[in-house]
Amino acid sequence: MHALTRSAKAAPSFHFTVAKAAAALLLGAASLVPFSALADEEKVLNIYNWSDYIGEDTIANFEKETGIKVHYDTFDSNEIVHAKMVAGKTGYDIIIPSAHWARLEIEGGLLAKVDKSKLPNLKNMDPTIQAAIAKLDPNNEHLVNWLWGFTTVGINPDKVKKALGDLPMPANVWDLVFDPKYVSRLKSCGVSFLDTPSEVVPAAMLYTKKDPFSKSSADYQDAGRVLKSVRPYITLFSSSGYINDMVNGSICVALGWSGDINIARQRAIQAKNGVNIEALIPSTSATMFFDTMAIPADAGHPNNAHLWMNYIMRPEVHAGLTNKVFYANPNLASLKFVKKEVAENKTVFLSDEDKKRMVPEQAVAADIRRVVTRLYTQFKTGM
Ligand code: N2P
């Protein structure tokens, strides 16, 4: 629905630009007019981002400064963005998929290369993170990191301890969501799983000590068994609403994303409702994601998209994202603008030691994506 609205809005600007280019050609002036001048864009920018994933005044400040009107839509899984990108004509100028999904879009020719001459603030980016993303986007030609984090378990420790009774907290936090011994007890206080195959299945793969992005379909069988064994105890599938469900106490355990769980924690603190929430760092392993800004190849406002990317990479703007949503940013120069309690939160900026145990998310080919989706659907529908 959103995409349709957006396409309809974006269409005139595209035709406008084409019409201008055609007029310039007719005048025989094309060779004299640089493309950037031809692409004198209407002051609009269409952004498609994850929900709960932006700073307090990130958009308002950009609009004020540039006079560009931002249209902002949200999603809560890579699968949704990818399906829209494959269908084409999304109408978006900036999308923010995880790098491993963006990789598939790069391979499909669906993303434009960034013009680095328009992105001087790239100098602020952490070379280690740039290098990690370059494994999926050689030379960082298409993607600019927005934020990064990891998939993990969030708990309400008071409710969890009460529900577990005589069973002590497990050493491996993943037992709380993948071992029926624990999950069956936690059902009474509410257990939530992310509603997305590409996050839940790799977590279950790690639990069975398999490569979470294995290319061999046989490797997925154990994960399927684990998921099936806990299905009766899951009370909610959610990739965004679970934040508030943690805050209001209707779930006590979530397989979720690090920052989202910290957002829930912050909201409960602000609400002073007596609900404690903790993001856990698995002592075993977890998948780690890099969500990245990218410009669809058919974007109607690529200049505005570059202005946005460069704006985000300003130290205080990037810090503003982290301060609000508790995901780490890749901007070394921003760290002095990150609030002390956020900078010191080890579930936001992981220690090097914790980071070493995490597995960066990888792109998998279509046949494996089908295996993952089938397995997840069977799990969710209880087949
Ligand atoms: C934002 C969740 C983004 C993390 N709510 C998943 N890439």
Task: Produce the secondary structure layout.
Blueprint: H1 2-26, H2 35-38, E1 44-50, H3 58-66, E2 69-75, H4 78-87, E3 94-95, H5 99-107, H6 127-134, E4 144-155, H7 157-164, H8 175-178, H9 180-186, E5 191-193, H10 197-207, H11 221-230, E6 236-237, H12 242-247, E7 253-257, H13 258-271, E8 278-279, E9 287-293, H14 302-312, H15 315-325, H16 340-343, H17 352-357, E10 359-360, H18 366-381
Helix pairs in contact: 10-11, 10-18
The structure holds pentane-1,5-diamine (N2P).
Pentane-1,5-diamine is lined by residues 50-53, 98, 149, 257, 260, 289, 291.
What proportion of the residues form beta strands (DSSP E)? 5-15%
The share of residues in helices is: 40-55%
Q: What is the CA-atom radius of gyration, in angstroms? A: 22 Å
Straight-line distance between termini: 30 Å
SSE sequence, one letter per element = HHEHEHEHHEHHHEHHEHEHEEHHHHEH
Write down how many β-strands occur, each being a DSSP E stretch of 2 or more residues.
10
